[in-house]
Every structure is written in structure tokens, then in C-alpha cells.
Here is the input.
Amino acid sequence: MHQVKDKVGKDNNVVPFIPEGDFYFTKGVEAFQKRKFDIAIKWLKKAIEAKPDDALYKCQMSIIYTEIGSYHAANQLLTEVLQASDYVDCYYLLANNYAHLGLLNDAKKYADTYLEKEPEGDFSEEAKTLLHLIDIGEEDIDDEDWDLEDEDELLIYMETVFYHMEYNEWDKAIPLLEEMMTLFPEHPMAKHDYTQALFFSGYEEKAVQIELDALKDDPNSLYSHTNLALFNYQQKKEYEKNVQALLNVYPIHEQQKLRIAVTLAKTGYIQEAHDRFRTLRKGSVKSHPSFYRWYSYTLYYAGAPEKAQLIWEEGCRKHLKLTNEGIPWK
Here is the structure.
């Protein structure tokens, strides 16, 4: 080890440099600006460990979570900050997250609160724009019977079901989905997630019939076609018609794009799935283990095994539970 002399000439061991929260925070922001979100999260976690009461650190971490689509994790951090302080920026950040989740009443509530507290704040223009967009979106919606408590409850159901569905925990998803369909019959995705959970729990014919009935009501239903493609493929029945319906659809929303890409991968349309995965904005689907599971699978069979390995390893770092599944293509 290098030695240094102090003023009186004694030998002293070099004291190692121990960076504090500000150093970690600066490194995290630099990584975030370069869109290296994995690295940014690691630095910000260190910053928060060093200064757990610093509201700015947690807000910055929440922004990174928002960027990668982990809205629930972002909201948890922001709520922690508000419980300990009145850091006003949190209100706008919460409003933005709830808007992304489609929970417009909560989004409106937090945007209004932000503007009440900081009418000329850093996010005042963004908050006003968000409120304007919410007003446009609500023009044709009668939500007299829809309140904030309903939205909070729906969010909890959505987040919990999402987790179980991503890890194929059908037995845990089914009772939650049955409750959702009773409490929120106007939420269409619950029925399609329910049929998928039913099918892979052994209730195949019931699941197929529900989707066939749904397809009669809406012949263009993206979710009915994705489910029936999977169901028929598993049952070794004619599934190409449903896949063809998907090949002609190019949704705007990243989650819908991902659903099509995963379905194509599962049904053996490797090149088509590969093309769809490449169009996804990674920041919007990082919270989905299925993205890493099936994109790596597709890359391997599309002739890019090294990239497949990299994507799978990245997924395992983000979602530790994936490491228990084994490599998808093996």
C-alpha cells in the first residue's frame, strides 16, 4: 500500500476515499442522462442508503422507475417522501405515474394539488398540460360512480395480478381475477387474463369457449386472438388464423406490442416475433419478465445466441426470480 508522510513525518496508511450520498447521486444522474438505467438505479440505491432522509434522491429514483415502466415502485418511493416531508414535486410525479396507469382521477387529484401548492413551480406547465389531456380524455366518459378509492383498489389488483401472471402463478391469479371481474366489470383485461389463467390451470375448454364468445362480440379483439392463438397451439388445433389476425395489427401501446411479440414467439413465429421485439421501447417493457424470457428465446432461435445470452442475463439481474427458471431455450 502507498504510504504518505504527515506533517510530523510519521508514516500513515492512506485513508481510503469513502464517497457519500452526493457522489453516488451525481453518478446516478450521469448514468440516467446516458439512459443506462440499470447503472443509475445501482448508484441511486447507494445514495439513498447513505442519506435515507434525502427527498431529492428518492424522487430521482422514482423518475428512473417511471422511465422503465415500474410505476408502482415509483409511487411507493414518492409516497414515502410525502409521509416524511412535503416535497412538492412528488405531487406532479405521482400525477404523471397515475396518468400512465390510466387512473385519471388520481392523476387529476395530484396535479391539482401540485398547482395549488406551487402555481409557478418547475412542473407547473407540465401539470397544466396533463390536466388538459385528462379533461379531453374524460369528455366522453361518465364517471359519476367512479371515485378515487375505486381507482386505488383497482391499481392494487392490477399490480398483484400482473406479478402472478408474469410468473405463471395461475392458482394465485385466478381468485384475484374473479374478484376483479365482480368489482370492476368495465375493466376488459381481467376477463382475458382470467381465461389464460383458467386454460393453463387445466380448464381448457371453458377458457376457449369464453374467448370464442368474446370474439363473436368483437371479431377484432387483440386479446381474444392472442389467447386463442396460444390455446389452439397448445391443443394442436388450427391456430394460424388467429396468428394471421395478429400479424396485421400494429398497436400503439407498448404492452400490446409486447403481448403480440410474446404470442408469436410462443407459437413458433420466430422471425415475426423477432421483428416485433425489435420495435419495442425497452424502457417501457423492462418491468415485464416475459420480455426477457421470450426475447432471449427468440434471439437464440433467430441465430443470435450471444445476444440472447446477454438479454437473458440482464433480465435475471432485474428480476431475480427468473434465475430459478433456467435458460429459456434449454
